[in-house]
């Protein structure tokens, strides 16, 4: 290859070079874990003469602390000290300073995962790339990046074709079809031409360099699906008929619309009418496009049973009043913390989101009493630094990690003229109910651990941010765990567990993952473990509606945060209220919360939610100890 003398390359840190976790208070770097492919990329660029640097917004972290973290992670040795810049990236100013620092460089490249930052870098005159694996290709080819849809011809669908994609300047974002026959990706023109030569069917989507300043989403038009073929009742005309929005739609598929959302717009601006739970999905890289990572642990316990001692603790520690107490503090009916802060919304664009993150971290530290390691996992989204909240109980004698999860953000997007930056979005059911469920699960698992002192796997309690914007926080977290080799054996996600209006107290378990039969089978084994515990720990609940069932597709496939883990090869299932009709023609109708995504989502049935949270807690304890 030709040398890259006269080239300067700047990288963002978190989400681009490494997974970054902060202290519970958000003021200290606890871990900066470099992604495994990054050292090779940096070594290749430096070996060809490029000068390397970073552009990072450290927020409240002192720059000297970031320097130490880069040194400890082995990244500092790759960097030119003159090209390490810290500051806000919400204007082109820091990027312009980078150009000045690069001096006589004839090419300056910024590599970062956030479209807003890439747009501002372009304004300052830099080249940009959305991922380190595309950096060299952007510099060498100096050709446009395109969104590509790569389809395997039906006659060759069973062949081993994925290796060909890994060797190309191509970044897979989304795989569809049973076993994965169509890949949406970002690639160079040379990658597209090479795929043409190999016999793949390649569609060039959108315009040249559109991936530089946009993020790709799948938007599900549930109203169109319900109305059926040739019934003109979809939502596309309302949003995508004219103007800039019309240029955002790249394709119409059986799964939904593929839309490139440009910075600084938000996916919030594309809320389709009559949408059901999980109506949007951010298309982002996973560790393996096939979603069938080798070595993923088996999940599920055959014939699970809880002991009388375990049941006694569960009954005492997971009660309706416990959920109600936690819920009140995160939905604005009680102060969230001692300073009198009231959280009226947890929307990512509202100040209440950061307040909720801080309150959750403090709550989990208080609950843990020094036994939980509480951290913030940070990621960028729509020009903001957001955080997931993680509390880890270290393992004692058994290998593997069990996750109990929910999402912490909320939205009121279905309300007319809703302003997410200022208006209330209490999200009591979606997903304050799951959030409260995770907190009581943490209290109960700690009590079980103290009372029984048995060998167990590590247990993590994780609250994900930006779920309402397409599973963004869980996608970042799950990808990072897979890249770092975390041996996750089970993920139990609670998303909307508090609404029950129709008779029967019905609820659902979702394990479907049509892209990989292996991952689906592991997830289904986990869901069956949950189902078998119902009569033992929550006998007021009926048997769950378990998906997939008798050949029916799972309607919640890719609609909640459990999907992010399945994408990366981990077994995961969703526990929810009765969101969907079925399974089977004789099943009761859906019992969907009519206040979904409205400011009126202010209350839950705490008895019902408590039964579900107790069930999930029992399943997590069984998965951790058997």
From TrEMBL:
PANTHER family: METALLOPEPTIDASE M28 FAMILY MEMBER, PEPTIDASE M28 DOMAIN-CONTAINING PROTEIN. SUPFAM superfamilies: HAD-like (SSF56784), Zn-dependent exopeptidases (SSF53187). Transmembrane segments: none annotated. Residues 388-615 form the Peptidase M28 domain. This is Peptidase family M28. InterPro entries: HAD-like_sf, HAD_sf, M28_fam, Peptidase_M28. One of its GO terms (molecular function) is metalloexopeptidase activity. Pfam families: Peptidase_M28 (PF04389). GO terms for biological process: proteolysis. It comes from Geodermatophilus obscurus.
């Amino acid at each position: 290859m030709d040398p890259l003398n006269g080239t300067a390359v700047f990288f963002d840190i978190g989400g681009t070079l490494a997974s970054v976790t902060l202290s519970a208070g958000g003021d200290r770097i606890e871990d900066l874990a470099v992604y495994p492919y990054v050292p090779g990329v940096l070594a290749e660029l430096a070996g060809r003469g490029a000068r390397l640097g970073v552009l990072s917004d450290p927020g409240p972290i002192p720059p000297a602390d970031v320097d130490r973290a880069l040194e400890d992670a082995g990244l500092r040795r790759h960097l030119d000290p003159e090209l390490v810049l810290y500051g806000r990236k919400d204007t082109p100013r820091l990027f312009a300073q980078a150009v000045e620092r690069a001096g006589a460089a004839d090419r300056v490249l910024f590599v970062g995962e956030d479209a807003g930052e890439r747009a501002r870098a372009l304004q300052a005159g830099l080249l940009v790339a959305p991922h380190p694996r595309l950096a060299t290709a952007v510099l060498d080819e100096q050709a446009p990046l395109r969104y590509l849809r790569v389809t395997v011809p039906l006659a060759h669908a069973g062949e081993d074709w994925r290796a060909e994609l890994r060797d190309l300047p191509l970044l897979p974002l989304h795989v569809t079809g049973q076993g994965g026959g169509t890949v949406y990706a970002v690639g160079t023109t040379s990658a597209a031409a090479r795929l043409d030569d190999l016999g793949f069917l390649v569609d060039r989507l959108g315009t040249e360099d559109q991936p530089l300043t946009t993020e790709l989403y799948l938007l599900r038009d549930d109203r169109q699906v319900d109305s059926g073929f040739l019934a003109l009742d979809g939502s596309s005309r309302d949003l995508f008929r004219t103007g800039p929005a019309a240029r955002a739609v790249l394709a119409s598929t059986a799964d939904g619309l593929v839309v490139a959302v440009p910075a600084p717009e938000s996916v919030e601006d594309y809320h389709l009418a009559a949408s059901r739970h999980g109506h949007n999905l951010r298309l982002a890289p996973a560790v393996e496009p096939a979603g069938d990572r080798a070595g993923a642990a088996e999940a599920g316990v055959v014939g699970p049973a809880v002991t009388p001692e375990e049941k006694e603790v569960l009954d005492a520690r997971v009660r309706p009043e416990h959920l109600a107490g936690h819920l009140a503090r995160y939905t604005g009916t009680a102060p969230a913390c001692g300073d009198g802060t009231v959280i009226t919304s947890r929307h990512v664009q509202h100040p209440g989101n950061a307040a909720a993150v801080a309150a959750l971290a403090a709550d989990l530290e208080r609950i843990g009493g020094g036994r939980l390691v509480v951290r913030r996992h940070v990621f960028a989204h729509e020009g903001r630094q957001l955080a997931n909240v993680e509390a880890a109980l270290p393992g004692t004698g058994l290998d593997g990690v069990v996750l109990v999860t929910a999402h912490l953000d909320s939205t009121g997007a279905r309300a007319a003229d809703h302003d997410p930056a200022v208006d209330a979005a209490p999200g009591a059911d979606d997903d304050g109910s799951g959030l409260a469920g995770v907190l009581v699960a943490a209290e109960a698992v700690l009590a079980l651990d103290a009372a029984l002192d048995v060998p167990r796997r590590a247990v993590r309690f994780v609250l994900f941010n930006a779920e309402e914007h397409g599973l963004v926080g869980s996608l970042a977290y799950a990808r990072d765990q897979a890249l770092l080799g975390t041996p996750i054996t089970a993920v139990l996600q609670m998303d909307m567990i508090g609404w029950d209006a129709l008779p029967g107290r019905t609820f659902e378990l979702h394990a479907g993952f049509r892209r990989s039969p292996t991952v689906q089978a592991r997830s289904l084994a986990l869901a069956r473990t949950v189902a078998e515990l119902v009569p033992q720990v929550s006998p007021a609940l009926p048997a769950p509606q378990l998906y997939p069932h008798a050949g029916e597709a799972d309607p919640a496939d890719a609609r909640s945060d459990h999907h992010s883990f399945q994408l990366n090869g981990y077994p995961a299932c969703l526990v929810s209220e009765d969101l969907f009709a079925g399974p089977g023609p004789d099943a009761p109708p859906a019992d969907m919360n009519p206040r979904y995504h409205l400011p009126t989502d202010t209350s839950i049935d705490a008895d019902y939610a408590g039964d579900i949270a107790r069930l999930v807690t029992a399943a997590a304890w069984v998965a951790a100890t058997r």
